[in-house]
Structures are given as structure tokens and as C-alpha cells.
Amino acid sequence: MADKIVLAYSGGLDTSVACKWLQEQRNYEVHCLTVDLGNLPDIDDARQRGLSAGAVEVDVVDAKEDFLRYFVFPALGANVVYEGRYPLATALGRPLIAKILVDKARAVGAVAVAHGCTGKGNDQVRLDVGVQTLAPDLRIVGTQRENQMSRDEALRYVARHGIAVRQTVASPYSTDENLWGRSIEAGVLEDPWVEPPEDVYAWTKPLDRTPATPTVVEIRFEEGVPVALDGEAADPVTLVQRLTTLGGEHGIGRVDMVENRLVGIKSREIYEAPAAVILLDAHRALEELTLSKQQVRWKNLVAQEYADLIYNGLWFTAHHRDLSEYVRSTQRHVTGDVRVRLWHGTVMILGRRAERSLYSKELATYSDADQFDQSHAQGFIRLHGLQAQVQAHRQLLRERTDLLHLAAPDD
Q1: 123 is catalytic
Q2: Range of the domain at 286
Q3: Is 66 among the residues known to form the active site?
Q4: Are 303 and 382 found together in one domain?
């Protein structure tokens, strides 16, 4: 009897190849697992492809709400974006897929799990590390990095076995989609000088086709988590889907970047993430009211570390737990509303308010309502500049006679 293996199955080219290859070359009984994190375009067709490729079953798990509640929204609280651009949609989905993959392997008595990630990408690391951490006894088969088929060879392989896939030689894009974003790579996109063809985009309109009038939407946050739009409570899935539609209509959320992969190569990536871009901007605007100067600055450092941790597949670590606890603590007063304008590819903050705002109009105003005692400023300035004055008079001014050269390097 063949050993059982659970394949993380998307229904695309690489995993369709993997399903048949695991049977032909490794003699496994293949159980396909499709984790629905949202926006899978053809789940029923994917199930049929898996069965036609010889899988014993294709199990579809709806994990959309868990994905947003336990992965996306904690990352939103930290304001994480990788290298200043990428909202980490695909990266955030991988630890959840790894967890569900392990659960499925236990349920069917599998001795191994498999995925179709390439040996060049980041996802192989995220899935492998996740599985190894949660279930070190399970074998991991990285089908794409082991069979080393090129994209053209893979297309010929599925054609030979009568497995229909969406990719063609003429349109060879590799895509990944979930509620938080969509990634597109391969084909002509591998040349960073080439402008992305319009057909790579599915969620966002080009600017010349966006509405002539803007859309204004009010977003309600409670402890850093978005909970309502325009005063109407919404569950996480509905809220994100609505913002994806609204943002995409106005051309918001396109990202074209050359990023640094974990394996050491640069990769040109295209992303669409309308809801992520809108919510990240709105969340930061609310934090401007509710966090102190020191909290904002330290959170910026934490955000960079958090983004690298997610990108590098280290979700199931003590370091992540420590970072997430700090972020959760910072969000306890991030409750309020943000009004944003969506128009011509931009998100503009129109207003923000919070129940426990640190902003005081009475201190900031220059009107007659001003409660700030300006006479205190002179003493504050003297104390603030004291260390600079002492060092300048006892050291710097004795070393240089030309004050213009104080900040210049030695000749």
C-alpha cells in the first residue's frame, strides 16, 4: 500500500503537475488540500483538476475569517509592509496553510506533505519552516524544486496527462490570491524595464478608467481592528471585500517593485492590494492621534522587524510572540474613526477622531482659546539645548575657529 501524502493544492499549474508527479515518480497516494483564503477564482474547477490528476480527494477548507482575524489584522496593527511597499498578503497566508496542512496530514494518517513552490522563491521556506516547527516527524516534498521542470516543460506535462490549467505559453503568469492581496509574476514581468501589460491586473482599474468623482468612506477601528464602514458594522471578510471593490474601482492598490527575496535574488513582483493600502493608511492616521511620539517611533522599528519575520517564514517563533504582544499592547487605545477619500489611485485622509485622542485643540490652537503658556518656552529651550551648549564651548569651538566647518569632515 502506498504511503499517503497531503499536497497543498491551489489548482494552478505547479500543483497540478505536483499531483500527478507525486504518483508517477514517488508512488504516493495523494490527498489534495485547498485552503480557501479568499478570492480563489475557480474552486470547483480546481477540485476537478485535482481529481483528474489522480488525487484520492481534494479537500477544500474555508479559512477566510481565521486568516483575517489571526494573521492579517495583527499585521495591520503593526503596520507591516515589506521593503516599504508589499503588504505581505501571500506571506501572511503561508503559516496558516502550513498549520492546516499538518492538521490534514494527522487526520488521514499521512507520512509526508508536499507543495509546488519553486526552489527560487520564498514560499518554500515559509511552508517548510512552518511544517517542520509544528510537525518535525513529517517528510516534506518540494515537488517543483525536485522535479526542476521549467514553465514550458510543466505546460507540456499537464497537456500530456490531459489536465487543463489556466496558464498558457502565451499567458504564463504565476498568480496567488487571497483576501488581502494578489501577486503576479513570470512572463514578460521578468524584465523590470517592461511596463506591466494591463492584462496582469484583475482587481484594479487603470487610472484613465476610474470614476470622475471620488468615493468617501468612513472606517471604524476598535483597538486597532477595523469593524465598520460608514457606521455599519461588518464582519472581517465583508469589510475587506468591500474595500477591495471600492479601492479597485478607483485604481488603488497597484504595486510594482523589485524586492529582495530570502534566497538572495532580486525579483520583479506585481501586487494588487486595494483593501490593504486603504486600511494601512487609515490605521496609521488613527495612531497619529492615539500613540505617543515614542510609541510611534518605536513601532516603526518594530514594523520593520515584524515585516521581515513574516516575509522570512518565522511566524511560529517566540520572537514573533514577543513582537505581537507589544503590538497588541499599543492598540488598546487605537479606537476611533477615519474618513478617507478614494480617487485616481490615491487614498487621502480627510479626517480622524478617537475617544482617547492625545491631540488637544486647546494646546494646539492659536486662537483665544489657547491654554498653552508660551512663557514657559524660553526656560524649556535653555534646558533642551544645555548639553549642546556645554559641548560646543568646551570642545567643538576650541577645535575649530570656522563655525561653518563644524559639521564638515576633516580636509
Answers
A1: yes
A2: 178-354
A3: no
A4: no
List the catalytic residue out of 47, 49, 94, 352.
94
For CA atoms 167, 273, 92, 51, give the dihedral sign.
negative
Considering the candidates 10, 49, 59, 123, report the single residue annotated as catalytic: 123
Catalytic residue among 10, 14, 183, 268: 14
What pTM does this model have?
A: 0.90
Concerning whether 62 is annotated as a catalytic residue, the answer is no
* Annotation says 126 is catalytic: no
Residues 81 and 158 both lie in one domain: yes
Q: Does residue 302 form part of some domain?
A: yes
Annotated catalytic residue within 174, 267, 308, 341: 174
Domain final residue, candidates 171, 206, 238 = 171
The model's pLDDT over 51-109, given as tens digits with 9 standing for 90+, comes to 888 999 999 999 999 999 999 999 999 999 999 999 999 999 999 999 999 999 999 99
- Do residues 259 and 191 share a domain? yes
The DSSP result for 200-250, as a single string, is G-SS---GGGS-SS-EEEEEEEETTEEEEETTEE--HHHHHHHHHHHHHHT
User: Do 144 and 284 share a domain, yes or no?
Assistant: no
Which CATH number characterizes residue 137's domain? 3.40.50.620
